[in-house]
Amino acid sequence: MSLTVLNLWKSFPTRNGDLSILRGAHLEMQTGDALAILGPSGAGKSTLLHILGTLDRPTDGVVRFHDQDPFALPEKELAHFRNRNIGFIFQDHYLLPQCSVLENVLIPSLAGVVENRAELEAHARALLEKVGLQERLEHRPAELSGGERQRVAIARALLFHPQLVLADEPTGNLDRRTAQAVGQLLLNLQQQEKSMLIVVTHSPELARTLPKQLEMIDGVLQPWKS
Amino acid sequence: MTFFQLLLRNLVYHRRGNTAVLLGAALGTAVLTGALLVGDSLRGSLRSLALDQLGWVDQALVNTRFFRAALADGLPAHRRCAALLLQGSAVRESPLSPKEKGEGVVRAGKAVVLGVDAAFWQRGPLPLDETFWQADAAETVLNAHLAGLLQAKTGDTITLYVQRSDDIPRESLLGKRNAEDVLLALEVKVRAVLPEQGLGRFSLKLNPAPPRNAFVPLRFLQEKLGLAGRANAILLGHVQPGLQEAVKKNLTLDDWNLKVTTPADRARAWAKFLDPRNLDQGNIKKVRWKGRVPPYLTARPTAEGLLPTEEIIDYYQSERRYLTLESSQSFLDPHVEKTGRLASRSLTWVWGKEGMAYKPNDTPVLVYLADSIAPSLPTPHPKGAKGEVEIPYAIVAGMRPHDLPLANELQPPLQDGEILLAQWTDSPFLSVKPGDKIALRYFYPDRHNHLELREETFVLRGTFPLEGRADDPDFTPEFPGITDKQDMANWENPPFPYDAKRIKPADESFWKRYKTTPRAYITLATAQSLWANRFGKVTALRLALDPRWNVAPAVEEYTSKLLAMLSPADGGFVFQPMKEAALKAGAGSSDFSMLFLGFSFFLIVASLLLVGLLFRLSIDRRANEMGLLLATGWRHGQVRRLLFGEGVALAVVGGALGLAGALLYAALMLELLRAHWPGGENLVFLHLHIGWLSLAAGYAASILMSVLTILWATRLLARLSPRSLLAGETVLTSFAGSRSTRWSSLILGVAIVGAACCFIAGFSVTGHEAQAGSFFGSGALLLSACLALLWRWLKRAGTHSSLQPSIALLGMRNAGRHPLRSLLTAGLLAAATFLIVAVQSFQKETGDDFFHKDGGSGGFPLLAESDVPIFEDLNLPAVRKPMKLPAWFEEVQIYSCRVRAGDDTSCLNLYQPLQPRVVGVSEAFIERGGFRFASYLGPHGTTLENPWTVLQQERSEFGDWVPALADASAAQWILKVSLGGFVQVTNDQGTKTKLKIVGLLQESIFQSELLIADDDFLQHFPRREGFSFFLIDGPLEYTTQIQRALESALGAQGFFATPTVQRLEAYHAVENMYLATFQALGRLGLLLGAVGLAIVLLRGVWERRGELALLQALGFRRQTLVWLVLAENLWLLLAGLAAGTLAALVAVAPHLAGAGGAVLGLRLLLLLGMVVAVGLAAGIAAAVSTLRAPLLSALRRE
To answer: In this structure, are residues A170 and A89 in contact, taking their beta carbons and an 8 Å threshold?
Structure first.
């Protein structure tokens, strides 16, 4: 699967008129590619991620997943597309505090019909084992450390073998050591799943662990000058 | 984990917030369902009360006439009881001198005297014993209510006053109308007091007020009234089919107060007249018959000079051979006359072997007692002037010309305006000749029963000898005290002006020989034009009998045909299905469920708003959770379904809890009604009745409303992107020119213009309610405008920037962060303030012009009712003289009205009025005018100087309705009829009379009845005699003295006067009580709004912990932070109060300008003070929580 972004624009209405955050961003990725996007605050990194994740719509421009424009899909099919093709990891993990670790990983499965729930649950357990949390399946998020919560979020994002994994500051709230561990874990899993990975980060260290880096400057993606 | 499991997990995890939502839903359910249960309870209580009051009685017959008690026997029912039911009053006098001991007379009006026997009481222990009820002791059993009013106990002596019975209509010439002839005092000893339950509460009238029953043995009452073996009511229980047929079959002529006399009957009566004590044992001595019998009989005595009764009978059978149909009521009811004639024409009398049939000729006769017959002298001339010869107290008979005794000799027949005079030996008219003018003077009762002397002049057609058919005293029905007297001078207490000195020896000799034989004949048409009245047009119907017939079979056949043709309904012999009527009336005069729903409306809305607000807060708090679900591929619809499912679960569980609260709410409302109903004791019968249908409906409705509220609260989700939700945003940012702002501008403009129009209109519309509605509408629109303005401000505030904002301004601007939340909170406070105060404008008080002629009292300071009708004109000096009234009483004018008893149509009667009370107003009252009309139907829509004349308007040829007036409020809310609408009442003929509402009186004292003209009243309710309703016009400053004087003079008749202002205040008290209930519930809603404000503030503080912590880290003191929080609170509070107060001031503008303005203003201030206090308390609570919360920990993200 490929990802193509052409001339992407995103503006937000303000009291003083529209404010353009993305001003014609271009991007192309293939299956298995991993990319870090850096840039100053307010540059539009997260905005780009949200659009790529279909959480927001562009003001102008094109986004295509293997020649398919997801924004042309009706809401129901768009949600399904997001459910099966995109995995999200946020800076604030957003685990549901009332659910256990295993249940949090299985949350995406409640969005649609699953043919074999038992198989999916086994897969979820396997993912949690991969992230080293096999002993914590029944624990609640409040009982986990920050790094552990983020690992749960990673496992949740990979439940349906997404084609595209988007991570928005996945290590932003973690200490350095934990951040390194989580970052590496993310990469390993991405390579195993052979999905595309885009990581938005302020951390040059994390960025360097990925094969490719771009920088968002004035709403446009440019090669990163480290 | 499944979707459902996640839903349940969410419910438990977010239990704090969910509990608040659940309680809000429970409150809404409690109030809504509780209101429905109040309606159920009222209806159920009314039904229970009515059925309890009826006891075992399913059907009842109550008549204005007295019939045989034995009529009840043989009727198809398991329980039967004949009774005497009489309206009256009761008095207890202290045995000690009032002067010495300060105790006086205790009176109780509206008492019901029930003459019953043992059959009345249910199986089981009777009050006292069967012997008591079958005997005739002068004793009584009171119910507790009457005993309490009289302060009487067992062993005390009381006096019951009822109307004497008299078959002769009191409002006819021969009717007795003086108080001493009308009133019967029964001194009785109290043997027992019955508790307020069971048959002690027996009543056939549906009214929440407890009855005032005095039970006496039937025989005792019959004896005192001179009605041995008679009753006026039959009560039946467990009625079987065929009742009306059985009634008709069992009725006899005696029940109809009719008799058919045969020649033999009249002969024996005459024999009895000659020998009243039967001293001669059927052979009358000469001393008794000499000079008293016709010549034929003078030749029939025995050698001893004894006249056998058989001879008299033979004479009658040959010379006076006819049947007579007569009534003890003097006149034959029109339907009896008509039926009597039809019955005679249906007879087939066959005689002999020839088989020939003959139909008799029925002869209607109308006789009248003239004051005098005299030749007509030139006018003017003093009565008794020299030359005037008169015959005093002469019987005049009206007959059809061909029925006259000497009809064969008169050609042409006697004409209208002509008179035939009898001639006898001592006649003073021996010298009169045909063509002479003859003056007939007679007394005729006017509308006030004052006997008016009238004169009619006739042309003498001729004279006739008193012999043959003309010699017949039986033209005249019997009248005890007159027709049974041997001499005219001994007439006993005649009810007409009588001067024994006018009777000359010639008159006595006439009486001796001819007794009540007519001295003159006129045509029946003329007689009827002069003397016919609502009681009838004839006094007898004669059926001539051919000499070849046998009398006995003729009588039998005629009687049976007559009874078969008489309709029991015409005679009032109709059983009413009392239990059915009770159940129907128990539905109530108003839809109480809807009424209390209306009262609770604001509280329900407030609780729903709270539910929505709290649920929305919950969504705000869980925004990123929802964003996460969307990011993982959940659809918007799925997320909404999850939230909706949680909301439904909360609504269902909360609703179930609310059902328990509904019982409590309903019980509280009933207690409120019991405690504050005017004359509070009247509603002690109210109890909680649980209607399962209401519970189900209330539950379902409240769940539906909660669900809709939750749907509304979640609707915004559809418009928020997952990105926004992840960022915790739940507000759509909009700027000037956005759609919501455009809408608010439109609302603002329309509302302001509308408010101005309504305000101006309020000064020009007439009518309290229309005016109140205009100002209320103006206020409501102004409120909408204020809220629209607030919305615009809130939308701008969130994006406003200022270089150096103050703390207060910062706090105020913070309200714009969640404009919808802020608007809901302020709006709730504003609406509550507005409603509670503005509703005050609908409060009714007697206006300053109440006592004006055009005001609600019509200029009457007093109105009165009497339990026993009064037949005299209370304005006549002769009537007032015995009352020993002060000199200034001359200024007092009393307008007497007739009453057809029925159901109270005012708001004081909770029962649905099935047969409204009808009052007949006199022509003088109509001419007087006054009162204020809300509207009326003038002829061709014209404006009338005196709208009362609509009662006398010409009706179209085919009009079958009677014009009536009603109070506007009673018509609208109780009778549910508008101007031009119809109300049906049962008339005295047992059929329905349609009353057309041709006028509506505004804020009048006539809420309890419908008013018709006296003429119409007499036509449709001819059997209602006397006056029981009085409007008293006199100097206002003497109101109390007038009241005391009249009640003292007429107390025995149960005369009770009420100041008109008191009557209107009683009506207003009910309406104002409803308003007060609305306001009280509104205050609860206000409290709920304040709770909502507190929750919103606390929530806001929690949300902004980080922000507040940052400010603290920047050097802001805690006190400054508290002020920041308070500023937002105060701003919303003051904005809401200002909007509500401004709108309320507009709504109550007329009241503020009026006399009660100061009081209203004070109430407004108190209310505002309460709201400010509650709101401040909420704000301080939020601020205090700010002080206590460890803010700096919020700076840490983990």
So the answer is: yes
